[in-house]
Amino acid sequence: MTYSIAQAAERTGLSVDTLRYYERIGLLEPPARDSGGRRVYSDADLTWLDFLTKLRLTGMPIRMMREYAQLRYRGVMTAGRRKQLLVEHRADVLERIAELRSCLDVLNYKIDNYDQILRDQAARERAAATPEEATA
Amino acid sequence: MTYSIAQAAERTGLSVDTLRYYERIGLLEPPARDSGGRRVYSDADLTWLDFLTKLRLTGMPIRMMREYAQLRYRGVMTAGRRKQLLVEHRADVLERIAELRSCLDVLNYKIDNYDQILRDQAARERAAATPEEATA
DNA sequence: GTAGAAGTTGAAGCGCACTCCAGGTCAACC
DNA sequence: GGTTGACCTGGAGTGCGCTTCAACTTCTAC
């Protein structure tokens, strides 16, 4: 299967502008062109773009993605370095998850606090509405 | 306890410039000033800054942090809305963690792949070093 | 054969969250 | 009382990751 840039954008969830941008900065090897000079993306291109998207989602900086891409072009002998990049990045992702979890604890604590405050407020309002009960 | 801007920066892990920036954009109520016009941060200021830092770490956009800050200035009657903001943001954080986990799976899969490739490479190198074994 | 949609290029622009700079004030120490 | 260093202000600059623009070409359908 082959895809126009619009189809590739649709399938990867990236914009056509981003596809051209990724090509320009060297994340993507220039795809084939049709007789009219238009880009023609292959399934392999899309697979690679999907993987890039995963890396982006995890916050890998573009310069690191570029290094990875360049190594890939240079073939199987760069597998060691590529693995190393991914292992390093995985450590970053794990750290990030741990960080988010710890912030989540704070968030939960705060939300519980607000629950308490709001319950107290509601109780005071009920008391104000039925003042005869207030001293009971 | 009170703190100079440098001490506040040190304790919160933010830069001096960022502290002034946060104040300028309304994340932080202008702290007290000493006789020479210098900022004097209180413990309450630092506590608030710590919380802001948590929110930033979880990727809350500054415009949302600002909304939260403005509500806080307006007092206890805004507790409901503030809780709502935190609850919404908590959902975002949970989603983000799930996303990272799913990317982590891809990362692990890729790394396993590289392990396999590298093992095969090593095996071929051993075979090349002792060719008489290659046919055994 | 002409309109309109989709594609091309190089370059400029944007939103975010800071970060840095120039030029000045103030307080503390020698 | 002179120097040093921390702090002040308003405003400009930065890096990242796109996004938009202008001007042009090409294909498709009527």
UniProtKB/TrEMBL annotation, chains A, B:
Keyword DNA-binding: yes
SMART domains hit by this protein: HTH_MERR
Domain HTH merR-type, residue spans: 2-71
InterPro entries found in the cross-reference section: DNA-bd_dom_put_sf, MerR-type_HTH_dom, MerR_fam
Single GO MF descriptor: DNA binding
Highest taxon of the lineage: Bacteria
Entry-linked SUPFAM superfamilies: Putative DNA-binding domain
Keywords linked to the UniProt accession: DNA-binding
DNA-binding keyword on record: yes
PANTHER family the UniProt entry points to: HTH-TYPE TRANSCRIPTIONAL REGULATOR ADHR (PTHR30204:SF98), REDOX-CYCLING DRUG-SENSING TRANSCRIPTIONAL ACTIVATOR SOXR (PTHR30204)
Protein name: DNA-binding transcriptional regulator, MerR family
Organism for this UniProt entry: Streptoalloteichus tenebrarius (strain ATCC 17920 / DSM 40477 / JCM 4838 / CBS 697.72 / NBRC 16177 / NCIMB 11028 / NRRL B-12390 / A12253. 1 / ISP 5477) (Streptomyces tenebrarius)
